[in-house]
Design brief:
The protein is α+β, with helices and mostly antiparallel strands. The protein has 10 helices and 5 strands. A 5-stranded mixed sheet has the order 1-2-3-5-4. The protein is elongated and about 125 Å long. The two termini are about 55 Å apart.
């Protein structure tokens, strides 16, 4: 397994430049000779030139060579050579720089006496060349480490991307399987309910029975339509985002209250222009509350209050005590949990509980942000 390189805090470039210049100045001070102002001036200039070593590393090295040739101060030139090696790659250039440094370090001006055939000159030249080569090797080591860190970061990013693709593929497979199950099982059973309700509506003689059968058939057809949209979204995982169905708005709440099969009173003063997410949250709250009333409080009446006050939207759905035994319908008890999560995502709150007269109340408060 590839591990990410631990992020280390690197010193600031200004601090490193300051350290390099300070070491060069100490080198000048150690070899200071007031009797040779020209040589000392070259040495001081070489230390100051180090300010350019990051932007112009080759030029900085060339400008520091005279200090090596005229004086014994070599730290500035070695620092420039190290910077050049840490920012460049051509080995031929490094070889020429090492030879140039060694030549300048072993040549004395104004009376040069340079002869490599003499052992006494060859040994100092070799030491100077080795010193310059050490600076080059150190710079190349730093460059290699930096390149390796970047490569490791790229590999880690590629690995994370591959893991994301694998997770998306697994999710797409699960969604496709879920879509098949929904289509093969739920869609078949809801279609059968719609067909039987249609037959009951045609064959029944009682008006109430006809109305109940028509309601069942209408709700079954609506459920099938939403189910088809949901199956399409599940099968299109990884593609363009698709709405589950034309999303409900505040204008649909009246139709929801009239078709829920419960005697319902609706009172609203909500403004127009609310965000679509808030409108959907209001609709789903009313829908879930009416569904729970129909399941757990048969014969009860419901009251829906949609109020706008103090910059908030208040949705309150209250039902009276049931007049009939509750229907033994299956439920996962996730409806109210989903309402609470939806409200919290929008920055609101949700409360629910029984009332004093034996009924039940669901209250959701959402921030009102009118968009236009």
């Amino acid at each position: 397994m590839i591990r990410r390189p631990s992020p280390l805090r690197r010193p600031s470039p200004l601090l490193l430049d300051g350290v390099a210049i300070a070491m060069a100045l100490l080198d000048v001070w150690a070899h200071w000779d007031i009797a040779e102002p020209l040589r000392m001036a070259c040495a001081l200039a070489a230390a100051v030139v180090l300010l350019l070593r990051r932007r112009q590393p080759l030029l900085t090295f060339l400008l520091t060579l005279p200090a090596v040739l005229l004086s014994d101060s070599v730290v500035a030139c070695l620092a420039a050579l190290y910077t050049l090696a840490s920012l460049s790659r051509p080995r031929t250039l490094f070889l020429l720089c090492v030879l140039a440094f060694a030549f300048c370090d072993t040549t004395a001006l104004p009376s040069p006496n340079f002869n490599l055939t003499e052992l006494g000159k060859l040994i100092p030249f070799g030491y100077s060349a080795a010193t310059a080569a050490a600076a080059v090797f150190l710079g190349q080591l730093v460059r290699t480490r930096r390149d390796l860190s970047l490569r490791l970061a790229e590999i880690s990013e590629a690995r994370d991307h591959q893991q994301l693709l694998t997770a998306q593929a697994v999710l797409a497979k699960e969604r496709a399987q879920l879509a098949r199950e929904m289509h093969d099982v739920v869609s078949h059973q809801v279609s059968l309910i719609a067909v039987r309700a249609g037959a009951l509506q045609v064959g029944a003689e009682d008006a109430d029975t006809k109305e109940a059968a028509a309601t069942i058939r209408r709700l079954s057809v609506q459920t099938l339509d939403e189910l088809r949209h949901m199956v399409g979204v599940l099968r299109a995982s990884g593609g363009h985002p698709t709405e589950l169905t034309p999303q409900p708005a505040l204008t649909d709440i009246r139709r929801l209250a009239d078709s829920c099969g419960i005697e319902t009173e609706l009172r609203t003063d909500l403004p127009e222009g609310l965000p679509a997410t808030v409108q959907r949250a209001v609709y789903r709250t009313v829908q879930e509350a009416l569904t729970n009333t129909r399941k757990h409080a048969p014969g009860a009446k419901a009251r829906i209050d949609l109020l706008h006050a103090d910059g908030s939207i208040r949705v309150r759905v209250t039902n009276t005590a049931p007049t009939q035994p509750p229907l033994p319908l299956p439920g996962a008890h996730h409806g109210l949990i989903g309402l609470r999560q939806r409200a919290e995502l929008l920055g609101g709150t949700m409360t629910a509980g029984p009332t004093r007269d034996g009924g039940y109340e669901v209250c959701v408060v959402l921030p009102a942000e009118v968009t236009g």
